[in-house]
Design brief:
2 domains, single chain, membrane, transmembrane helix, transmembrane, about 150 residues, alpha+beta
């Protein structure tokens, strides 16, 4: 009993560490294309695990409880690899540097648009706003294809 209790506590600790990891990595990419959803999946998965473990599975059925613990650890091990697969190759800072170096001008905060929008293909892109010679230009940067184009000037 004590061993299973420690394993369940381990699941909670690993889940908390992974949520911090997802938050800080996703923040660099403005949580583009659902990168910010992973902590909610972990919380929901943990809730389902504990409901199944304590309520649905009978107390005497040790095999099912052990299987639930193994499945939870397996999912927690697989989740970072899945997350890392969907992280784009460019974060906001990289996109800002590329556009400001190529187009020239000073990066300014845009009050009209937030940091990301959904493009025609259904994926989110970064919005970078530059000011050059008192003229404001906006560019949409796709972090997956590494291409950008003028937007809403």
């Amino acid at each position: 009993m004590y061993k299973r209790k420690r394993l369940l506590q381990g699941i909670l600790v690993i889940s908390a560490l992974e949520m911090l990891y997802y938050y800080f990595i996703g923040k660099q990419y403005l949580f583009i294309n659902g990168l910010g959803d992973m902590p909610f999946y972990i919380i929901g998965g943990n809730a389902l695990l504990f409901v199944a473990y304590f309520i649905l599975v009978e107390k005497s059925n040790i095999r099912k409880k052990n299987a639930l613990i193994i499945i939870a650890y397996a999912l927690l091990i697989i989740a970072p690899f899945y997350f890392q697969k969907h992280v784009p190759s460019f974060n906001v800072d990289d996109a800002t540097q590329i556009i400001s170096r190529t187009e020239g001008g000073k990066v300014v905060k845009d009050r009209k648009f937030s940091g990301t929008i959904v493009d025609y293909s259904g994926l989110e892109v970064y919005i970078i706003t530059l000011e050059k010679d008192k003229e404001v230009s906006r560019y949409a940067f796709d972090p997956y294809t590494e291409k950008y184009y003028a937007f809403a000037n």
